[in-house]
Amino acid sequence: MSAANSFNPALLATGLAAARRALGRLDEEEIPARVRAVAKRSGRLPAPLAASLVAELNRNEWLREIALEELGDDVGSDIASIEFLRREPGWEERLAVLAEKAQSALAEKSRRLLEEDLAAAKEEIETLRRQLRRTTRQAGQASTRKAETPNRELELKKLRATLSSTQKDLATSEAARERLMTEVEQLQDRLESLLRRRTGKSTPRTAAAGGMRRGPLALARDLDDRLHALAVAPVGEAAAPVRPAKEPSGPPSIPTGVRPDSAAAIEWLLSYPGPITVAVDGWNLAFQLRNPPGRKERGQVEAAVGRLSHRSAGKRKLLVLFDSRFDVAGTYQGTHPQVEVRFPASADEALIELAGKEPSLVVITSDRRVREEAGRSGAIGLWGEALVDWLK
To answer: 243 φ, ψ to 5°?
Structure first.
């Protein structure tokens, strides 16, 4: 939302309507200043005002409470509004899943409509081609006959004009067809991406209308999407680490004087010449990028971890673990080809368990308990703040 954030006004329509009714019952001095323009508005809210109402509900617990009271039993199927207003534990993740499902449904509907337009465009093109062949044949027959009368000459000019017009219409329709094919492929790729992120698995590609398959253009767009996903703002360019002359003889350890919560700790991690497994507490780090985090921040975490592979002196196995309470458990390739994303039931417990299995493990999390428990098994614990500081 790319095109899908969890606080999309369209996803929270019932809750926003209840909040507007609640605002309408308040005295003017009771209405929060940020949404007074909303309270005065009747009819459909413009996008900026809808966004303002969502933002005020997000920050104002009192407003959420009176919206819930106004909502009463008028919930229907709008579970998203209830999650957003009640804010029971884990609501952010559940709302993110609902938003992703809504975006998938919208993308699928748009794709079907485009395929219908594409089918109509193909039919129009075939009609124009038949007309073009017929007009070309008539023009050829007329030109072979002697222009005996002015009427015959006029008929030939009309046929040539019709031929030219039909050729232009055909070219326009062909261009529209190519555009529709591109849009259908883009939506198909987007839909598959959403499904892969939700299930943690690759989904089989279904051919679009007309038997279209994934061609060079679609592959190029996919590459662009991956490159875009690797952009983690703000990112500064630092010098590549210097590779030490020889492999280390023992397990890795942080040098004396390097704090585990500083960017210097990440620089040490990059410069260490031996193999290291790096495991990152995904949602823990995402919360430091934005609170509450969403799918965008999850992608930024994956991309940030992926940058470590480019700058490291030694071999790195890169893992990002997100709690699967609100995602389907599984493993999938992240936005970076070197990053493996996992969805254990509890990322904290999985990181601690991993410390007993993976040699030369570095755990990156701001959770003190996880760092200490992993440290008892020999893992090195770095703070999430260290990676965030290194990215700036």
So the answer is: -80, 125
